Amino acid sequence: MGQAPSTPQPGTNLRVIGAGLPRTGTASFSAALAILLAGPVYHGGTQTSIGPPKEITTWMKIMRLILNENPSDRQQALTLINRQLDGYAATTDAPGSQLVPELMEVYPDAKVICTVRDPVAWEKSMTQVDGLVRSSWFLRVILLPLPGVRHYVDYLGLTALQWRRIYGRNGGPGGAYHKHIEWLKEVVPEERLVFVDVRDGWEPLCRALGMEVPKDVSFPRINDSEAITRTVRQHVRRGVIRWVGLFLVVGGVSSAVYFLRR
C-alpha cells in the first residue's frame, strides 16, 4: 500500500499492468514504476482505502458486473475500467491483479508484470487480511460514519468472490499464491508476461521495460504490511472519533429536550 493516493495525469497512457498479488512488494513496485514511467501509478490498495469514495464504489460495481458472467455486463465493466484508469501510467495491486484478462483487453499494448515473493512468507503476511475479514462485523460498525471506507467490508467480500472465481474454493491465502502464478501463465501470452522480485532492485524491472537503470536513484523500499496496518488503525481511530462525536451530539440534544420539557 502506498503512502498517498495518486492523481491521474491527462494524456497518460497505461503501459504496465501489475499482476502481482497484494503483499508482494506492490507499493515499492508502484513507486519504482512512477519513476521509470514518469507518470502516476494506480495502486489499488491505496486508492480504494484512502482515495475518494468513488474509487472503492466503482471497483465494487466493476467486480459485480464481471461476477455476473454475461457479455453485456462484462463490456460495461471494461468501459468502467478504462474510465477508472484514464490518466495513469500503470496499475498495481488488487483488485486489478484479479482482473488481468479484462485489463489486457482494455490495454492490449501494456506489459504484464507480476511481482513475486517467497510463498511461505506471503501466506504468513496474509493472515492479517484474514483477521480483517474475521472481524468484519466490528469494522462494518466502526467504519459506518466514514465515506468511502464504510464500503470496505463489502469490497473485501467481493474480492473474496473474485478469488474464488479464479482460484477455486480452496483459493484462500494457503493456496492462492501458486494458483495465481498458474492462472497468469494460462491467461497471459508468454512474451507479454514478466515476473520480478522487488528485492532484486532496478535491473530486472528495467530490463523488462527496455529502459536504462536510473542513475543515482535508489530503488524504493516500502513496507506493505506496515502501510496497511497504519492505514487500518487510522480508519478505526477516525471511526471511533466520529462515533463519539455523534453520541455527544445526540446526548446533547436529548439533554436539551429533557430540560426544555421540565
Secondary-structure topology with pairs:
Layout: E1 16-18, H1 26-37, E2 41-43, H2 44-50, H3 53-67, H4 71-84, E3 90-92, H5 100-106, E4 111-115, H6 119-125, H7 127-134, H8 136-143, H9 152-167, H10 173-187, E5 193-196, H11 202-209, H12 224-261
Parallel strand pairs: 1-3, 1-4, 2-3, 4-5
- Write out the strand line-up for the largest beta sheet, numbering strands in chain order: 2-3-1-4-5
CATH class: Alpha Beta
Number of strands: 5
- Supply the CATH superfamily name: P-loop containing nucleotide triphosphate hydrolases
List low-confidence stretches. 247-259
The CATH architecture: 3-Layer(aba) Sandwich
Strand content: 5-15%
What's the alpha carbon Rg, rounded to whole Å? 20 Å
Report the average pLDDT across residues.
85
Give helix % range: 55-70%
Structural class, by secondary structure, is: alpha/beta
What is the number of domains?
1
State the end-to-end distance: 55 Å
> Major β-sheet, in short?
5 strands, parallel
Order of helices and strands: EHEHHHEHEHHHHHEHH
Question: Which fold name is given in CATH as the topology?
Answer: Rossmann fold
